[in-house]
Amino acid sequence: MKGLIFNMNRFKRAGLVICIISLLISFVGCDMVKVDPEKDRARVVAKVDDDEILKGDFLDLYDQYRGLYVITDEIEENPEYEETVDQVKKAVLDQLIMEKIIYNKAIAAGYKVDDGVISDVKKQIIDELEESFKLADENAEQDAEELVREQLDEYIEASGMTEDEFWEKAAEQEQVEKFIEEQLGDIEATETEIQKFYDEQAQKQ
After folding, report:
1. Would residue 110 be called left, alpha or beta, if left means φ above 0 and alpha means ψ between -120 and 50 degrees?
2. Contact 57/1 with Cβ under 8 angstroms?
3. Distance (Å, rounded) from C-alpha 68 to C-alpha 122?
4. Rounded mean pLDDT of the chain?
5. In terms of Cα–Cα distance, which of 168, 133, 173, 169 is closest to 149?
6. Please, what is the Cα angle at 86 between 81 and 89, to 5 degrees?
């Protein structure tokens, strides 16, 4: 799909840090060959277990990173920034791989995404958005539903997904967050402890 990937952290508290790690995984090159766009996006750039990460997933998340780090076309084409751009691309791919690893661990631990989970997550997000609009403007209660719909339409369009894909991805991330919270327990995790958790999961891969 992250993916997303779309980021549920727009709706919820700040998420756990996804750290750059070195993984012994079979990679397929990430070169940006200009071919038929649809076929190009379907190319496999990495594999985790039996799951494939497609170039389209990579490009969608990379576009978000480009905006975050203000990477323009000119910067990408400038040899002076080649190493920096490559590092950003590696970070993007590492994030996609780590998300897939953690998701697979969550599924193996009994977490799942089905119609019931998707419905619950959808309701939770819509309720939280409606509440935020009401808090922002006490007079907005009557229009809250319409405002939420407009906001969600913007999020879905920006994600590049269909509405069904959007909600499925949101439900996946919700399950992953529950799994991570269970693994970390009630501790106040530092960034170093979170890094250690991810590294341990990667070593078990």
Report:
1. left
2. yes
3. 27
4. 74
5. 133
6. 130
pLDDT digit string, tens, across residues 150-191: 888 988 888 778 899 889 988 988 888 888 888 766 545 556
Q: What is the C-alpha to C-alpha distance for residues 140 and 131, in angstroms, rounded to an integer? A: 10
CB distance 16 to 195 below 8 Å: no
Specify which residues 53 forms β-bridges with. Answer: 46
DSSP labels, 130-193:
HHHHHHH-GGGGGGHHHHHHHHHHHHHHHHTS-HHHHHHHHHHHHHHHHHHHHHHTT----HHH
Q: What is the total residue count of the chain?
A: 205
Burial of 80 (0-12, 13-18, 19+ CB in 10 A): exposed
Separation CA 99–CA 179 (nearest Å) = 12
For residue 97, give both structure tokens: 């791989």
Which has the closest alpha carbon to 2: 151, 203, 170? 170
Q: For residue 41, give the 3-state DSSP assignment.
A: helix
